[in-house]
Design a protein that fits this description.
With 247 residues, this protein is an alpha/beta fold. The chain is built from 7 helices and 7 strands. The longest helix is centred in the middle third of the chain and has 23 residues.
Length: 247
Amino acid sequence: MNNELDGKVALVTGGGRGIGAAVALRLAQGGADVALTFERNQQRADDMVDQIKAAGRRAIAVQSDSADPGAVVAAVDRVVGELGRLDILVNNAGTFLLGPVEQLSLGDFEQTVAVNVRAPFIASQAAVRHMSAGGRIINIGSNVAERAVFPGFSLYAMSKTALIGLTKALGRELGDRQITVNLVNPGPTDTELNPADGPNSDTINGFTALGHYAAPADVAASVAFLASPDGRYITGATINVDGGFTI
């Protein structure tokens, strides 16, 4: 990999597995020192730290519950304190609660909004206090914000759609500081929660133009591009890495 991110420090929330882990590793391979947050699985987080260090970069794992506003701010401050700066924030951590709308509880609503909407806002708010020109905020959304083809996604789709407005408005607000803000919407991606050989995979593949799932590395590649110097003139944009799910 190249070293176009050499000297940069990145924070990837929910970076211990799936798309977040792929993003963390790709940014490290591009030259960045990387911090990641995790909620419960210390072993996975430590494994990611080892992989990043094996790529020759500094790395730390921070236990943080994204539903806790204080923990979100504390994670950002710890990254700056231990790694010296913050240049790239990837708001990846999320929760995925599905069900018929009449069966979703107020607790389900509050948990989803806390993790999928409030946490990215608070993390961004905390991060920009430390970012200088060239800073990057990259939100990870979902294809269902633009096309919900299955029942039961109302709460999750609503929360991910909120990131479109956050991305556009922050992109406008931070533009004069030369900090870009963008949104990556993954489509079907081969992870533990949604394996490419799962029981519904054939149906899901049928909704895409390319006919197959993405690998987490495919999503990570778009994030790395937006984080790189080549992404400097893109802000407020939504990039669908969805195999044509939304076309």
